[in-house]
Every structure is written in C-alpha cells, then in structure tokens.
Amino acid sequence: MAISTGDGAVDALYLHTASADNALVVSTFGIYLHAAFVSLTLGFPLAILAWLIEWYRTGDGLYLKYAKTLTAVWAVNFALGVVTGTVVEFGLLDIWPTSILLFSSSGFVPLFYEATIAFIGEAVLVGLFVMAVGRWRARYTLSILLAAWALGSLSGYFILTVNAWMNVPWGVGGIPRALYPFLPTYGPDAANLTSALTLAALVMNHTLAGAGSAALANVNFTQAVGPFFADPWLPLANPDAISTTVHTLLAAYAVGVGAVALALSARYLRTRDEKYLKLLKPLLWIMAVVVLAQPISGHFMGEDVVAYQPLKFTASVALTGGQAVYGYSFNDPIEALFAYGNPNHPIYGFQYYLQQCGALGNATFGQLYRQLDPQALGYLGPLANATLAQNCEAAVLSLEPLAPLVSAMYYTMVGSGILLAIAALLVLLTYLVRAPVLSAIADFINFKLLGRLLGKDNVLPFLASAMAVLSAVAASAGWAAREVGRQPWTVYGLFTTNEVVTSVDVTPGFAAFVVLVLAAIAALGAAAMYYTATRPGLIDKLRGSHE
Amino acid sequence: MNSAFLSFVLLGFFLEMHLVFVNVIIGAAILTVLVRYLAYRRNDARLDALARDMFRLMVATDLFAGVWATILTVYMASAFPSMTAIFMKADFYPIAIALVGIVASIPLIAAYWHLWGRIGPRTHSALGIPLAASVLLVPIGFRYLFAELDYPQFIKPGFSPIDAFANPIYPPLIAHTIIGAVDIGAFVLAAVLAARKNPDLYGVRLSLGVGLALLAPQAVAGGYYFAALAKYDPYIAANVAGPLLGYDSPSGLFYPAFYAAVALAVALGLIATYAFYQATKGKAPRATAVAAGVLAEAVMILMEYVNDGARYPYMFVTGNGGIPAAQLVNQLIQMPPAAIYVALGSTLFFTALFSIAFYYAVVKRLLPED
C-alpha cells in the first residue's frame, strides 16, 4: 500500500503488516455494523417521541400503536447495539491492544463516564420505557424517553470524544510537530515530553520486534513511562470532539429516523394506505431540521480537518486537485473558500509536506533522544540511525496512495449531503411549512417535475426515501473519509497503525471467521427487527398482562 | 489509602457488581434448558411454565450484567493497563471464545423465546443446547483470566497464547464457578417465585431442591479449588484458610470473610431446607426463600472477595510471591477522585433504579397503571 522508504526500521512503522491489514478489515466491518445499530438506537426514540406527542395531542390511537411497535424494535436494536458494542470494545482491546493507552490516559474520563453514567443509565431507562409506554401518564413516559435518548446521545459524545482525540490529540501540544513539522500545535502542553518520548521509544522498539502493542504487556511498562498526561479532563474540551459529536449525532438521528421513514414510505407505496403518510409527516419535521443543520456542523468539522489534519485535507481534495495534489500547491477556489475563507489561498500538495520534512535535516532519532530522553535511547535499536526526515517523509508517502480513496469518500459525502439538503428543502417547503415564493418553487419542482416523473402521490414517499438513503450514504462515506484519512496514524502524529496492532497473528482465516460472525449478527439482527416491526402486539405480549 | 490499593478495591467492586447479575444469568439459563427438557419428557405444563419463569429472569438480568461487564472492562484497562495488555496477549484465544459466547447467546435467546410453543418441544429442547453452550462459553473464556492471575503462564520463557489452555488452576476454578452459578440461579429464582403475590409453590420447591442438591457438589468443587490453590498459590491459600487450618496468614482481611461465607453457606442450607419443607407442606415460604436467595448472593460476594482479594498486594501470584498490583497500576495519569466519585454515585443510582424496575417487572410481573 505505502511506498517503502528504503530504511527497514522506518518501514516497520509505516508499511502495514498483513496482520494489521487483516485486523483493519475486521475492525472496519465491526465498527460500521455497530454504527448502523447505534444510529437506529439514537434515531428511533425521536420517531417514538414524535408519535407519542401526536397521540397525546390528537388522541389518535394509531400513533400509540406504532409508538409501541417501534419501542419493541428499539429494544431489540438496543440489545444488538450492546452485543456489537461489546465485540467492538473487546475487538479494540484484543486486536489493537495499544489502544489500552487511551483507556489509561486521555480516554479515561470519557470512556469511564460513558460506561458508568451514559450507558448504564440508557440501559435502565430503555428497559423502564419498554414497561411504561402506553401505561404511565404522558409526563412520566415522555420524561423517561427523553432521558434515555439524552443519555444515548451523551454516550455518543463520550465515545466520539475518544475518537476525536485519535484524530486531534488535544493536549499533546507541540510534540507531534517536532517529528512532523507540517502539523500544528494540539492545544496546551498537558503531555510530559520525556514520558511521551519514552512511550514512543518503547512502542517503536516492540514494533520493530514484531508488534508495538507487546510493549504494554511488560509488567514494568507504566513505571518505565511515568506520568504521561497531566489533565485527563482536557479531551472533553477538544474542539474536534464538539464538532464531531454534533455532526455525527445529527447524522445518526437522520439515519435512525430515516430508516423508519423509509419503511413507512415502502409500506405506503405497496399498500397505498394513507395512514403511513400520516405517520410519516411528524418524522419529516425531525428529518428536515436535522438534515438542514448538518452542513453547518459539517463545516466546523471540516475546519478542524484543515487546522489539525493537513495531510487528510490534501488527500480529501485529491480528485478535484488531480495530479497537482502530488505537487507543491494548487488553486481550488471553492475548497479554499470553505477551508480558509479565501478563494485565492493555495492548497498544499504532498510535495509541500515532503519539503517540510526536509527541514528536519539530518537529525536522527538517536540524536533527538540523546538530547531529550537519554534513558530511552536504548529502546530505539536500529531506529537510532534513521533520520527524523525519513520518518516524516514515510508518513506523507503512506497516505499518498490512499488519497484518491479518501477523496472519493469525501466527495461522495459532499454530493450526498447536497442532494439531501435539496430533498429536505423540497419536503419542508411543500409539505410542512408555506413560505412565499420558496414554497411556490418547491411546489413547482415537486408537482410539475417530480410529480410528472413519479406520479404526484409518490413524490413525498420518494423524497422521504431519498433522504433516508442519502443520509446513510453520506454518513458512511464521511466516516470512511475521516478514518482512512487518519492513516498512517491511529493517533494523529503519535502512533501508527502498525504500532497498535496485536502481537498475535491475525490470519485471513481468523479475520474471515470474525467477519462471518458479525455478518450473521447483522442478518439475524435485521431479521429480528423486521419481525418485531411487523408484529404490533408483541410488546404487550412481552410485558405480560395484569395479574 | 495508596492509589494501587484504591484501584485494586475499585476493580473488585466492579467485578462483584458484575458477578451478582452474571451468576443469575448463567444459573437461570442452564436451569431453563434443563427444566424445559424435563417438561417435554414428562409432558408437564407446570414445568414448562417454570422454565418460562426462569427464562424471563435471565432475560431481565442479561443486559444489565452486560452493562457491568463494560464498566468492569473499561475500568480494568484504565487502572491496570499492563495487566489488561497481558490478558489480551496471553489469553487471546480464551477471550475470543468468551466473545463468541456473548455474540451467539443474544440471537439464541431471541430464537429460544420466539420459538417456544411454535416448534415441537423436542426441537425446542434441542435448541436449548446451543443456548446453554453459548452462555457457558462466556465464563469458560473469561475464567482463564483469573487462572492467569493465579498461575501466570505468560512469564514462562517461550510462552505461546495456546498454552493458556493448560493452566492447572483452571479446571477446579471453572467447575466451582459453574456449579456455583447454577446454585445461585436456583436460589434467586426460588426467591423471585416465592415473593410473588400468588407464589408458584411447585416452582419454589423445585428451585430450592436444585439449589440444595448442588450445595454438596459446590462444597466438593470448592475443596478441589482450594487444593489447587494450596499447591500452586500457597500465598492465596494461606490468606483464605488462615490460622484455623494451620496457615500462617499474611493478612487478617480475608480468612474471617472466608469463614463467615462458610457459616452463611451453612445457614443458607438450613434456611433453604426449612423453606423447602414449608413448600412441601403447601405453605408459601416467602421470607425464608427470599432469605435463601439473598444469602446465596451474599456467599458468592464474600467468596469472590476472598478469592480475588487474597492475592493482595500481588496481582499475578507465583507461589508465595508475585507481581505487585502497585507495579501494574496506571501511572500515566492521576485518576481524578471526582471522576471516580461521580461514576460510583451514578452506578449506584442506576442500579437502585434497575432493582426497582426489576422488582416490578419480574416479581410483580407488571407495572401499575400510574
């Protein structure tokens, strides 16, 4: 995948081993599967909430019936989220053991709070809501539902905070910049420099010996490293954590509510029963608001990429930049306007970053450690003679071959997002609110253009379905661009993928087995949710009758 | 209190909370499958209803035990990163086995529940075999981690992850664990059934009978486990048995708890026998059956406290010494006490809320209208 630097020690850090590639396949599949279930877990309560409010407002039993049915689906989905979450969590620890460092340093507060506040609370309240819906007074039922949804979202914030730290390691200050001069400073200096260097040396040493994660399995590991991160609360204030959380949660709500909208639209198109359109309308309000807020939060997330992940930004625009992306710089007025607020600002190509690496001169790792952390010098082994410039260049060269993929995912997200916003506006202005001129334009598009193509009655279900599908496409592609674009690092500017993978060989057979198991969960889970969704009385049967 | 001790105690607390629920799951799952099979063989509707009650108890507890497992895992990786990394390296395969169990059990639970009464009783009983197997795979996998703590194989030169399966502490430990879990599940089930408004005396009698019948095998398994500890972990054995059995105990914190647990186990046997007698006479043994359920959990909590605490100040024990917890405790950050207190407060609050919901869902069978 990546280009060899010719230095075996440096290559060991950047060129993926077969085991790392197999492990990436397993984790990618597992995380996407978990994300799919979790998106539904976060979106379904909004749909249930909308229907319950309609029921309390109108007294129409149809809304309660479907709120109860969706509650049962939500419960099944929550259980599946727990299972896939457990697999992902243990997968993280088992297949990427260096990630234990996150649990024990920057990720401690968010991960601990996710488990002890958000997850436990959500689990209890989901159970309580399943028992209460349709039985308790409205104010109790809605309060439980809202609290469960809020705790689910809080859980998302905590988990995404850790992911954001892997993308923007807030609190490590200028440490990454010392090795990669094109990187910025990441917040205040909360990381101890000597400990960080010792940690890096230990992990690199074991990576050269086969697997960096083996460093942690030494009983003297934490004593050897010493105090590493001074402010465990700091990651909660990571600017990328805030923008990532808002953008990702909105995407999850859109996917979750969109899945319900898609199911209702499909039912309507098959049966022509107006009740499905009646059920669909309250959901469209949520979809429209969420979808139209997405470009704003997405813009802030994009600003973080420009500011903190310059290589990823360059990779993202590879398709519009063409060959120029591999040069020093190029002009792209639209991207430059969004990224820098100035259409004339140059966008840097990979050659720019390689030139920045050159500024490190002939300094070697050995010289760096001799000056700053002589005690860890012994861990470097053959890496002591590698130059910092070689190391920096290897990082840049690692991402180059992936740039077209990152860019394809990025533009798929942008394109889907634009279509999604158009669909949301068409729904909003024709079916939900009336605004002078704008609604007339939307009506013209919906009834004169789309109506002629699809049939007037099919426009609304078509737009709802399009929003659902485009939400899922945009979310999947956006996440792929974010995660693939993080290469060659697992923690940006600090740890490469090879440094994180397990010392136990992840064979293709093992990877295939895990993927098959996960695929079976996906298939059975989808079947279970479909089964529950098509049996309206199931929740009452589950809860039992009065004694 | 030093940070290593505090971290050790907290890890123990999270483990105990997890085990309170997970033992009920294992016990109720095994008993469900067995009773369901008996119901089919004897064509007994009462046994079938009892099996359904057992299954409901398991389902109600399952997710919450999973939540505590997550809390335990997160805290373990946070507080003892090297120990966790050692587990991930040395016990890679046992952990994979446990994960397969977790993953397989959820769809099997759903299928078992859904197909009950929809397919032939013989086929449904057969479906119980993979269900019970998947539930058992979880302790079967994870108990290797405890065996690793008592008999660390990773320190041996040339250790390969496959060697984890040859740990001599493991066979008695897993036998003691599974028999104990089924025993606890039986007593807790008896407590739940007896606490209901119209108790199912047949179910109470049967579950108490199973619980009582398993007390002796559990004592034998305990003796077998203690013998293994005495051979491979004299430090733990001395802390558990104390001067009463002629050991020079390094700490006085554990053997009193061990003997208290033994005394409670005897009390459990007596109270459960009396409850069983009451049930056979047609009288609902509400207080005694509930007491038996509570005592069963209390014995488990004390025994696990002794089993895991008696290694302190070591984490991995090798004979009379070991690798101290202080050497493994996280030093990369200073764990903020406020974070710990808030987390503890939150878990206790939600556990109380869960217990109330559990009481209404499982004991009262439903929630009141308002």
Automatic annotation (TrEMBL), chain A:
It is a multi-pass membrane protein. It is found in: Cell membrane. The keyword Membrane applies. One of its GO terms (molecular function) is electron transfer activity. The chain crosses the membrane at residues 31-52, 72-92, 112-133, 140-160, 250-270, 282-301, 408-433, 459-481, 510-533. GO terms for biological process: aerobic electron transport chain. Keywords: Cell membrane, Electron transport, Heme, Iron, Membrane, Metal-binding, Transmembrane, Transmembrane helix, Transport. One of its GO terms (cellular component) is plasma membrane. The keyword Metal-binding applies. PANTHER family: CYTOCHROME BD MENAQUINOL OXIDASE SUBUNIT I-RELATED (PTHR30365:SF14), CYTOCHROME D UBIQUINOL OXIDASE (PTHR30365). This is Cytochrome bd ubiquinol oxidase, subunit I. The lineage of its organism: Archaea, Thermoproteota, Thermoprotei, Thermoproteales, Thermoproteaceae.
Automatic annotation (TrEMBL), chain B:
One of its GO terms (biological process) is aerobic electron transport chain. InterPro entries: Cyt-d_ubiquinol_oxidase_su_1. GO terms for molecular function: electron transfer activity; metal ion binding. Its main location: membrane. It is a multi-pass membrane protein. The keyword Membrane applies. Pfam families: Cyt_bd_oxida_I. It is found in: Cell membrane. Keywords: Cell membrane, Electron transport, Heme, Iron, Membrane, Metal-binding, Transmembrane, Transmembrane helix, Transport. The chain crosses the membrane at residues 20-39, 59-80, 92-115, 127-146, 173-194, 206-227, 253-277, 289-306, 338-362. One of its GO terms (cellular component) is plasma membrane. This is Cytochrome oxidase,subunit I (CydA-1). It comes from Thermoproteus uzoniensis (strain 768-20).
